[in-house]
Structures are given as C-alpha cells and as structure tokens.
User: Fold this.
Amino acid sequence: MNLSDFDYDLPAERIAQYPSPVRDHARLLVLDRRDRRIAHRRFDAIVEYLSPADVVVLNRTRVMRARLLGRLADGGRAELLLVRPEGDAWLALGRPGRRLRPGIRIEFDGAAGATVVRRSASGRLQVRFDENADVPAILARYGRVPLPPYIRRDPDELDEQRYQTVYAREVGAVAAPTAGLHFTPDLLQRLQAQGTKVVEVLLHVGPGTFVPVRCEDPRQHVLEPEFCAVEAFAARAIADARAAGGRVVAVGTTVVRTLETAAAASGRVEPWVGFTDRFIYPPYRFAAVDALITNFHLPRSSLLLLVAAFVGRELLLEAYAEAVRSGYRFYSYGDAMLIL
Assistant:
C-alpha cells in the first residue's frame, strides 16, 4: 500500500468556502457498496434510506473558540490554538513556531497572558495562563472559530453557528465533526418519528484531523490521541439495533473511530472512556459500523483512508471522481455521502 494510492485530482473551486444556505439542503451522494450504484439526492432525503430498526450515532462534541491572537513582548504577533487542558497548563499549537520557545510570554487584548512552558520536538506547545485566569471566559470573549486551513478567509458570525452541529453540547473540539453539520432539529425529529433511534457518543476532535499523511507507507502514520466516550445507554441501543437486524449508522469518521475503539476488546460496542489513537486503513474488518454518513475528504488523509477501508479504495475513488464531475462541494463545508 502506497500513499499515492489515496490521491485524486480536485479543482480548487470545488473546496467549499461557505456552508450551503440551508443545512439539510446540501447535496447527498448515496453509494451502495453491494451493487456499486450511485444516486444523487439532497441531504434531507436521507430519511428514506434509514429504517425504524436502524440506530443513528452522532458525535455531541462542541467546537471551542480555540484560536487566540496575541502579541509578543517586542510587539510581534502570535497565535495559539488551544487543544486541551493538561493539568494546570494547556496543550497548544502556535505561530510563529520558531519564536515560541519556553519562557516566551504572549499577551491577549484585555485578557490575561500565557507563557510557553514546554515545546516538543513535533512543535506542540504546553502553555500556562496567568494565575487565576478564567480560560473558558477568555476563549468565549476573545477566541475565534478555528476554521480549517483550506477555508481561506477569516471566520465571521455565520461560522459561529454553522461550524457547529445543532446537537453540539460538550465543549472540547478544535474542529467540527463535519458530517453532522447537515442535520437540522426537524430532520432528527423526522428520523425519530419513523422509529429510527438516535444516540450520541463523544470524540473531541483534535488538530491531528488536519495532519496530512506523509509516510509513503501510510501504515506508518501515527494519529494524535483524542478523548472519546461511549455511555452505557448508547452501547445498549447499538446492541439492541443489531439484535433486531438493524444497522448502526455512524455520522462521521469520528463516530466510526469511537465505536471501533469501544468494540476492540470484545467485538461489540461496550461502554468506554479514554483516549484513542485508532488509525483505520485498508484492509480493516469493521466490528461496529454498518453504514456511514460522511463528507468528502482531502487526498492522502487519514480520513480518506478510513472511508477507503469501509468502501474499498477503487470504488471510493470512482465515487469521488463522479462527485467531481457532478459539481459536488468538498471538505468541511461541502456536500455529503451516505455509504450503505
């Protein structure tokens, strides 16, 4: 397996810079793995493909306003992307990387400052805010939405709502679980009204989601650990759906990784809490997921490899080529796929 096997051509204009005007009016490419057929629908038609026996699994993580702009002592600009707390400090990414060494202090407008405590060989920072600083309040007031780097604009008020799922509840992600961005409260109600169960798990998406796979043998790539949790209620609903002949429908690759982590020990989803670095690539035997709702992913990315493991590399690249020909919008704010 070579990294070049997971490449495809994408015109730059296909990279969505804004979300669709209406969440559930994004386009939906439906791919049936059994007969290799493709259908072109609108996202709200997804109800037609799910049954009362199925269970839809969402990721309830909420994106932090994790990007902080500040100044160095000499007046130069600095930027931090807070990832997660580590004791009395925070794991972070920072720019300009060459200047953010241990001991360097960053001041934020009207707020407390932070000092770099440690810098890893990979460039990850550990920063400590001033004593008694209320970091959540600082982020709420001064933080910015951490849009991915391929969205080449500053975040605006629209992103405050649209780079968040309608069911986001538990703050801790630095990127949205983007497959879920297409759901509306009405669409979720329609699913439940027809008997389809909807449950939640948690995975706080970290910056590793944007780290490209650079190893020519992609199996050598290492994912950064991310916190995830599956509660007993969700595990029981998944087991009940399987027992009744229903399908487990994962909304996004983060849900896939969470469920597969929770099923690793016994082959069935059980309650689980902890950090996962599970990297899924072909060939892989899925223990927990029967269908997948996902967006279109970057070439040579860990996300693309996961979907290739679920679909098959050749069939997936055929579907992506069809999506490009048909004018689909790609990446975080783009259109969606339903893989059956």
Notes: The longest strand covers residues 77-86.
